[in-house]
């Protein structure tokens, strides 16, 4: 089932608490008292997208597995939102590829420096 942002927004209290994580809609109302960080942080994002704060905290696989039974469905995205998500994913992929290239260059420079050092040590003997 799909839910619009407005539908999710209507569930924004401690007694009726839905939250969006990675474009999935969860009813976390019954989970609030069991949340290890307390209910307040979850209620702060009730009816909204909590993806960024969820990822910033660094939830474990166990925490993610606990969400499975709370899943109601998917967030219904407009065509514009879908296009923006795709664009963001492509940018993230390009950044990751660029970072891996930077890492390889750093290792190469380090190896060259080590080679020069060893060569100079050999020349001194």
Please work out how many helical segments DSSP would assign.
5
In this structure, how is the largest beta sheet organized? 5 strands, mixed
Average pLDDT across residues?
89
Beta-strand portion reads: 15-25%
Radius of gyration: 23 Å
Helical proportion? Answer: 55-70%
> Which of globular, elongated, flat, extended, rod-shaped describes the shape?
elongated
Quote the distance from N terminus to C terminus: 75 Å
Which stretches of 5+ consecutive residues score pLDDT under 50?
Answer: none
DSSP, total strands: 5
Based on secondary structure, the structural category is alpha+beta
Topology, please?
Elements: E1 2-3, H1 5-9, E2 12-13, E3 16-21, E4 24-27, H2 39-44, H3 51-57, H4 61-67, E5 71-75, H5 79-124
Parallel strand pairs: 1-5
Antiparallel strand pairs: 2-3, 3-4, 4-5
Give a structural overview.
- The protein has 125 residues and is an alpha+beta fold.
- It is 57% helix and 15% strand.
- The N and C termini lie far apart (75 Å).
Question: Which short descriptors sum up this protein?
Answer:
125 residues; alpha+beta; 5 helices; elongated
How is this structure best summarized?
With 125 residues, the protein is an alpha+beta fold. It has helices spanning 5-9, 39-44, 51-57, 61-67, 79-124, and strands at residues 2-3, 12-13, 16-21, 24-27, 71-75. Helices cover 57% and strands 15% of the residues.
């Amino acid at each position: 089932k799909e839910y619009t942002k407005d539908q999710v927004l209507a569930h924004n209290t401690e007694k009726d608490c839905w939250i969006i994580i990675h474009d999935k809609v969860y009813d976390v109302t019954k989970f609030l008292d069991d949340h290890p960080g307390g209910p307040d942080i979850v209620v702060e994002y009730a009816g909204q997208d909590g993806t960024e704060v969820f990822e910033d905290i660094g939830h474990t696989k166990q925490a993610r597995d606990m969400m499975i039974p709370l899943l109601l469905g998917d967030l219904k995205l407009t065509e514009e939102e879908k296009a923006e998500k795709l664009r963001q994913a492509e940018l993230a992929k390009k950044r990751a590829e660029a970072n891996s290239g930077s890492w390889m260059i750093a290792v190469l420079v380090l190896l060259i420096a080590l080679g020069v050092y060893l060569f100079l040590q050999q020349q001194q003997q």
